[in-house]
Amino acid sequence: MCGENSPSEQASSPLPALGTLLVDVVRERVGEFRGEWCGQWALRPLGGGTEWTADPAEVQVASPEQRIRAKTAYANARSRGEVL
């Protein structure tokens, strides 16, 4: 169980679409939205990797510049053979 909070007491903001690039402002990381569990949002690095959870209040939609940076970093890592 997720705890004492009922679904109506949890954040009322709509969930982003799966795969939406979001910025975890606390960790200063860009990640893909993977889902929600117990009021926390699950994010994972672009292209895969270990997921982490973030409070929805500390997450924002990535700006076009942030999306380009994340996608470029992933493409560069892939070209170096660091990721598949």
Automatic annotation (TrEMBL):
Superkingdom of the organism of origin: Bacteria
Q: What is this protein called?
A: Uncharacterized protein
